[in-house]
């Protein structure tokens, strides 16, 4: 493989960037729906249900409740990265943008998952500990939510490896919760950080070994670790093989270049900084 292949964890980061560039940092849920209509040819679970509803002319704010039993699954949480990057160091703004994005397709813990991860990814640019980033992310979701309760539980656990992590999650949540639910998978991310600390390879390999929705958990954790350690401290063999290029299946869109995306997110960060200064 000479480039990074297509994957929904990457596609939604690309899509988030396009949303921010077209509609700005104060975009609405209706703007998200319009970009989906324009660019997204296919989707899975909650995203597929809503995309189908949008194609039938159902308004953006009504689409989530139609033929969509997936609204607390991890689909929204994997869309968090773009908002964490654009609002680096501003976790509240990152969570606000994630809320606008998530409520198109999800409800309750499904929304909170994206808000938490966006805030944690934002905070990761300003802290040295991934668990501290998670704790900051938790301040942006309701304390009475089940996700907050479950993450509090996860942070209190001692865990030594991926096998113990999986056993703890199955015992805590039971076998009836989907393996692609938001809550159990975000607890695995906490365990990945507890095991791997700030070692990118250890965190990612342990999360992949844990299973469940491991491409999503590893991708989200990777954003946090990457922001903390910086690209110079990520082993080159993890990215050099992709030759600075990631593929896309978004309509009428060329493959993305890693360095170009970084520059575009940096531009958005500058816009947020200027906006914040003007409001002060």
SSE diagram, text form:
Layout: H1 8-23, H2 29-39, H3 45-55, H4 81-86, H5 91-102, H6 109-123, H7 130-138, H8 146-156, H9 162-173, H10 182-196, H11 200-210, H12 214-229, E1 245-246, E2 256-257, H13 258-279
Antiparallel strand pairs: 1-2
Kindly summarize this structure in a few lines.
This protein is mainly alpha-helical and 280 residues long. The protein is 60% helix and 1% strand.
The biggest sheet, with number of strands, parallel, antiparallel or mixed sense and barrel status, is: 2 strands, antiparallel
Order of helices and strands: HHHHHHHHHHHHEEH
Structural class determined from secondary elements? mainly alpha
Assign the CATH architecture. Answer: Orthogonal Bundle
Write down the Rg.
Answer: 18 Å
Please give the share of residues in helix.
55-70%
Q: CATH fold name, please? A: ADP-ribosylglycohydrolase fold
Mean pLDDT: 96
Number of folding domains?
A: 1
According to CATH, the homologous superfamily is ADP-ribosylation/Crystallin J1
Query: Gap between N and C termini, in Å?
Result: 48 Å
Shape: globular
Query: Strand-residue fraction?
Result: under 5%
- Sheet with the most strands: spatial strand order: 1-2
Task: Write down how many β-strands occur, each being a DSSP E stretch of 2 or more residues.
Answer: 2
Spans of at least 5 consecutive residues whose pLDDT stays below 50 are none
CATH class: Mainly Alpha
Put simply, the count of helices is 13
């Amino acid at each position: 493989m000479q480039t990074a292949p297509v994957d929904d964890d990457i596609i939604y980061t690309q899509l988030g960037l396009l949303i921010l560039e077209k509609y700005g940092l104060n975009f609405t849920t209706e703007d998200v729906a319009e970009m989906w209509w324009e660019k997204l040819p296919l989707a899975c679970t909650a995203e597929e249900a809503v995309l189908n509803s949008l194609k039938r002319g159902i308004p953006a704010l009504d689409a989530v409740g139609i033929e969509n039993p997936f609204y607390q699954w991890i689909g929204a949480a994997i869309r968090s990265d773009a908002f964490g990057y654009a609002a680096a160091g501003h976790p509240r703004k990152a969570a606000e943008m994630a809320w606008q994005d998530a409520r198109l397709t999800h409800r309750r813990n499904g929304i909170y998952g994206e808000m938490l991860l966006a805030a944690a990814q934002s905070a990761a640019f300003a802290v040295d500990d991934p668990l501290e980033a998670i704790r900051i992310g938790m301040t942006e979701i309701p304390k009475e939510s089940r996700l907050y309760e479950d993450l509090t539980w996860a942070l209190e656990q001692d865990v030594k490896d991926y096998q113990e992590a999986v056993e703890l999650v199955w015992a805590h949540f039971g076998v009836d919760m989907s393996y692609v639910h938001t809550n159990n998978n975000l607890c695995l991310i906490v365990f990945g950080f507890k095991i791997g600390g700030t070692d990118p390879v250890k965190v990612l390999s342990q999360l992949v070994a844990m299973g469940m929705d491991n491409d999503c958990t590893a991708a989200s954790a990777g954003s946090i670790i990457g922001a903390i350690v910086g690209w110079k401290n990520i082993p080159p063999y993890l990215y050099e093989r992709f030759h600075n290029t990631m593929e896309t299946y978004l309509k009428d869109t060329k493959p993305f270049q890693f360095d170009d995306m970084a520059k575009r997110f940096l531009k958005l960060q500058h816009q947020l900084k200027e906006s914040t200064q003007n409001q002060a």
